Amino acid sequence: MKKIAMTLLLIFSLLLFSCAKTPERGADINYKQGFPDLSIEYLGNAQEYQSRSFDLPVLIHNNLAYDIENVAVTILGFDKHYVELFSTQENIESLEGKSIFNDGGGKEELLFNGQLGSLLPGARKEAQNYRIYARYDSKVEFTPSICVTGQLTGYDTFAGGCQFQPEVTFKGQGAPLGVTRLQIIPRQGRAVELRMLIENKGKGNVGSVSLGAAALGGKPMSCEFRGTEPQETSLFSFESEQKNVDLLCTGFLSGENPYHTALLVELFYDYEINVQQTLTILE
Amino acid sequence: MADKSTLHSLKKFIMADRLGRIGRFQYQPEAQRQEDKEREPDKERKGSKKESAGEKGFSGNFFAGLRDYPSSSPASNAGSKVPASIGVYLALMIVAIIGLFLKNWISYSPAASLFISILIFIFFFVAIHYTPEAALKKTLVIITFVLDLFMQFLLGLFPESEFKSAAITYYVFAWIALSLVLFLMGVFDALGAGQRLPWWAWLLTAFLLGYLLIYILFPFLAQSPLLYQDKTHSDYFNIAKEYLLSTAKSIQETKNTAIDYMGCTFSATATPYQTCLENQRIKRYCNANFKTAAEQKDCTIKQKEILRQGERPGVAGSVSDAIEKVTEVTLKTDEYFPKETTNAQQSYPITLDVKNPREQAFTVRIDCVFKQAKQSIPGKISILGLETSEIQITETEKQVRLECQPAADLKGKYTLEFNAVLSGLQTFSFLKRAFISGEVDPALRKLIETDNFKSGERSSLGPEEFALLNFKFGTGSGTEPLVLVEEPVIFSFSVKDIGDGKVLKVNSYDFHGLFERGFSVDEERIGDADCLSGGEIMVIEDQTKKREPSELKRCFLNLPPDLKELAGNSFEVETFVAGMNYDYKITKSIPSLEVTPIEPVEAAPAELVEAVPAENPPTEAAS
């Protein structure tokens, strides 16, 4: 009886586990969603002995859906009395993003070297806080298929190829910076204004963002970042701690009735992220 | 006709009525009472508060029926009921706390504060009126109220001073303190009356007493004469007496009295208040220590000069927990120490215990003196029989037993004082600073500050031994941890006495961490040219025994080129180390040494000595 019960339990467990969803792979995965960040990992020892040379290995992992370029990894914040780094910055030309050809994203290990100083007389240990900064250039593409209409009023009723929605929200395009809200405002003469809220949802800071391309249904749009100077409307510099900016675009429609069309907005930006680490120096 | 038991009950009722306890002793025949008791067993358990509250309706007063009296009758041996007054005291505590919050909320505006105080007073007074033994408590309430009013009217007149701070403290917490005192009095009343306390009253009492013991009594005991547990009990009185006398003397000589505060309050228009207080203190000190008018005048001039020096701005610093290897030097007596002796030339042993984990090299020079009220007899120090008073220390640990022998015969009671001058002690301190440009991003600036400077790391730190070398430098007054490289950098240092002895002098100091890094004295600005390194500096207690000791040197610094060139978001974090060589004096006082020399017996006449054996035959002695 006991054996039967055990066997049944085993079978039941097998069935239960086999029901679990297998992870999506390759072409099934839409990498261009969410707000992933670059990951910075310290691979060395958390403790080192005083008055010795030491290595500080750092792993940079690109979790974004886009390649990143001109990656500069810098270590800052060490107290010079205790830690002298021979070089505080290492560069990576580019690091591949996640794609069907590389679903893990590019990784690169960097090695910093330095010399530890002596502890103060009578001290047994010293905890040193420092930060690993990574700065890079990358881009993000916003390519949804949206329902547009040339009707100025009464557009909330279904008429034509799609249900027009004046405001749509989005959950990221596979980069820390992304469009989170799109407002579609029909204008006179088959024109449409698109207001996009571009938000930095990552843990780092965006330096500046510039518009690469903007098209609605294959036709270029004229765009400007809100709050920029008239002569340089396609480049926006984020203030410290600033997390979002509005991009206003005007496009032209091919008909009055609602229809689906492709929107393309390509943004280039530079980004900096840092992580804090602690190195304990022992006697 | 009432029977005997009915009459007895009636008498009880009358007595109870007189005592204001009518609620508990309403007239009922015994049988009826018993029946009621059986019917309402819960009523007995719920305590007198509920009972009184339920039955007191006749008086029309909330607090009526709260008096708790001990009862000898079996009926009230229920005696062990929960006393209602405890609840009242708790309510008063809540009233006092609400009063405190209200006053705080109205920002202690005078009229509203007065109104709140009057309300609290009425509440307290009426409540206390209905508690047992109310007379004393009412007096306390009235005193508190009067003092509260007194403070309300006079606080505004007082200049800033310690006295004013004490008065403000009283004014703020008076009612809470009173409610706690009343609560404890209520607890003792109730226990004395054999009543039972509710669990929360026990908890509160335990909390209050525990708090008193842990935070007030124990720290007091730890610093009091009772700490001398190696002394016999007969010595305690003398120790306590000396302690009190020295405290009184210290107060008399060095502290300001209430008369000073009052006098200086009224003369504040003529002389600044603090200066007036200091002048009064100096006058008292000099009068107490010098006899002639000329000496007193000299003393006054000298003290004022010291005061002037001590008034220089302070440089803070603190002890670092990270420095675990700390130098310790102590003088210890053991249980064989001869506190009482008949030998007028007795040698008194003491052990010099040195812990020197950082392996410093320094010298200890010891002397001793036997002190009485009017005279002092010096002593001679010997180590292992050799007359020497100097010991070289280089080892990590050393114990030296030495002896002090009086230079003249002793007789009577003395205090033996051992002084050890530690010459050539070395200490160090360190200070962390971050160098930034004025253009730095505000967020980064904040990040640098939070990553590198916890609250205790903004000032210099050093090992917890005898003296601390405090220093500061940077933008503004030099206390900010972030140094703007474009701004002038000010530097100053001080010495803080953190031991039980006295810093005698600084032999040398050097801020090698700074000058080795490329910092230099900015000679174009006013300052001490030798502020980064130098030799002897004599120091006085007024400079070193302060929370923020007075600066000894001050100058402006030139930054090294690499720091000067920082721009944008570049920054540097660096710790700077400094060293100091100094002399320190520690003292060990041993009170109540008693020397009772044996009086020499006069020699007996020879014939009498010879005659003794004849009177005492040998046979008797042998037997």
Number of strands of chain A: 18
Structural class of chain B: alpha+beta
Helix content of chain A: under 10%
Q: Which residue ranges of chain B are poorly predicted, with pLDDT under 50 across at least 5 consecutive positions?
A: 1-80, 224-234, 608-623
Radius of gyration of chain A over all CA atoms, rounded:
26 Å
| Class computed from helices, strands and strand pairing of chain A | mainly beta
How much is the average pLDDT of chain B? 75
Largest sheet of chain B: 13 strands, mixed
Please give the alpha-carbon distance between the first and last residues of chain A: 64 Å
Number of strands of chain B: 20
Rg over C-alpha atoms of chain B, rounded to the nearest angstrom:
36 Å
Largest protein interface, residues of each chain: A-B, 20 and 28 residues
Helix content of chain B: 40-55%
Output the keywords.
heterodimer; A: 283 residues; Immunoglobulin-like; 2 domains; 9-stranded mixed sheet; 5-stranded antiparallel sheet; elongated; B: alpha+beta; 4-stranded antiparallel sheet; disordered N terminus; disordered C terminus
